[in-house]
Design a protein that fits this description.
Helices cover 21% and strands 31% of the residues. By secondary structure, it is α+β, with helices and mostly antiparallel strands. Bound molecules: zinc ion (ZN).
Length: 328
């Protein structure tokens, strides 16, 4: 993949990675994956990405604005911005790439076969060794709405684990989700862990639209990370109150047992206790069946709720994350 801007030059550059892919639509040309670099005086490099999943709009809006608003001359370092990382999925407003059906956030560390999605992941992997910090902005996309959260990967490297948690704190987002044993091993988080690079992912609402509060929090989180990495000076705000949680069991998911219309009772960010109803399932096929209460299996934080009113067996009505200690 060819990059049409010089990532080592100072100033503001906005260009594209040329993703060569030959199919009926792209036989002659390339898919332009947007990239920007904002570089001031010498200093650390921070990589910011959004559009890893194409139907998650909050991070794309935040980064598309910041590539114009950040003053490169005010930066003590370099920011590389990939505001629509999985460009084919962004163009289609889909989670996975329409070109090869692959999920970019499962394509790192050779998690996908050769193809356009793996090519994008491989490019990012070549940049990681030069980075002091990486942030990847997600949301619940079309299917879910998340509590605004910073996601920090737990690693066996205790220094890296501490750096990941410090970055999550610097976002000042209200929830920190610690990623561990049940998380994907081929995500961008995993690639950063393998490269020894501190990284934080974010979940910023979702539902196939943009929530103003999530957008504002995400923007402040990105600016906080740039200050945390030493690229922007200014007063350091006091620590924010952040609830630390993890998904440790399959029972975290409140699973829909049959096709139905789901009436939510809780909202992402609420607290629940085990046995408490989080949604009501209405059997539209069998109106003689009374509505079924879907209950939390665990006590904790409602990390995410379904964004759709109609769900099928196996869909999740909600995700309940358990509170964990700082060193979890
Ligand atoms: Zn995502």
């Amino acid at each position: 993949m060819f990059c049409d801007i010089d990532l080592d030059a100072r100033g503001r550059q906005i260009g594209a990675l040329r993703l060569v892919h030959s199919d009926d639509r792209h036989a002659f040309g390339h898919v332009p994956v947007p990239i920007a670099v904002l570089a001031g005086t010498s200093g650390p490099t921070v990589l910011l990405a959004a559009g890893n999943h194409g139907d998650e709009y909050e991070g794309q809006a935040i980064l598309l604005a910041l590539i114009h608003e950040l003053d490169p001359d005010a930066l003590a370092g370099r920011v590389i911005v990939l505001p629509g990382l999985n460009r084919p999925a962004v163009a289609a407003s889909t989670r996975v790439s329409p070109l090869d059906g692959m999920n970019l956030n499962r394509a790192f560390l050779n998690g996908a076969p050769p193809g356009p999605t793996r090519t994008i992941a491989a490019f990012v992997e070549t940049v990681l060794p030069s980075c002091a910090l990486v942030a990847d902005l997600h949301s619940g996309g079309s299917t879910a709405i998340y509590a605004d959260a910073a996601l920090a990967t737990r690693t066996s490297d205790t220094d890296l684990h501490a750096a990941n948690l410090a970055a999550a704190r610097a976002t000042r987002l209200p929830v920190i989700q610690v990623l561990g044993a049940t998380s994907s091993t081929t995500s961008l988080n995993s690639a950063c862990a393998a490269a020894g690079v501190p990284m934080v992912a974010m979940e910023l609402g979702g539902g196939g639209r943009i929530d103003r509060r999530s957008l504002t929090r995400g923007r402040e989180a990105v600016l906080g990370l740039l200050a945390h990495a030493g690229l922007m000076c200014g007063s350091v705000p006091p620590p924010a109150a952040q609830r630390m949680v993890a998904l440790k069991h399959p029972q975290s998911a409140v699973v829909v047992p049959s096709d139905g219309i789901v009436e939510p009772i809780v909202t992402a960010g609420d607290s629940v206790v085990a046995g408490e109803a989080v949604a009501v399932l209405h059997h539209w096929r069998e109106p003689r069946r009374p509505p079924l209460r879907l209950c939390a299996n665990l006590s904790g934080l409602v990390l995410a709720v379904a964004a759709r009113g109609r769900l099928e067996p196996g869909d999740h009505a909600a995700l309940i994350a358990e509170d964990v200690e700082e060193d979890a």
